[in-house]
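Hello support,

Our group uses your service weekly, and this is the first time we've seen a run hang past the timeout. The protein is Biosynthetic peptidoglycan transglycosylase. I'm not sure whether the cause is the sequence or the server load. Input pasted verbatim:
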Amino acid sequence: MAVTKKPIPKTTTANKPKPKTAAKKGKRSFGEKVKWFFIKLCLWFFGISIASVIIFKYIPVPFTPLMVIRAIENKFGGKEVYFDHDWEPIEKISMNLQKAVIASEDGTFLTHNGFDFKALQKAYKSNERGRRIRGGSTISQQTAKNVFLWQGKSYFRKGLEAYFTVLIEVIWGKERIMEVYLNSIEMGDGVYGAYAATEHWYRRDASSLTPMQAAGIAAILPNPRKFKATGSSSYINRRKQRIVREMRAVGKINYNAK
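Update from on-call engineer: The timeout came from a worker crash unrelated to the input. Re-ran successfully.
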């Protein structure tokens, strides 16, 4: 008796059962999407921030966030929106002013790597006792804040400030940090930078400041909208005298030496 064999149907790729994982291929969970979003955000942030620091190593900083904030404050406060800012190369800025801000704001500027941990510790302990003193921020930290960030005391902003401080210390170096600092810092109400400040306070150019005049500008930096470099209060006059004495201790400035 002959046995008839039934033909075995060929299994094609089309009718093969798809593995369960295939249906999920190309799909990400919400958590994975959030993770990749933050990774991309961080990469963009690092890329843009580093590129910005490199660009401002070579070109003047046209304006800072503080300049914009002050203009908005004055506009909505019904005050005159006054803005005076001109870039001046460091070669044309009086060495007396460079010494004065080091003596007044950051005595170890030429030797530290962006942070003065002794000053920070001293400021922390004094603040714990309820004493009011200026913060322990270095010129490098102040420059990073002025150029790239906003005013404030949150830990998040402080963290960004530390990040930008490291970048400018590595990429710019001390001389460029001082140049940007002296061209961007607030030195009066609506007055920014050494060129505008010397014209505003003394009616002269930034290269010809005497030690006492330079000390006058440096003395008002803690609150330049309240204090005056000329016609000063007794408090500011005492600060001027102290700064002039400390300027002698700064000695010759060499930005390339550590």
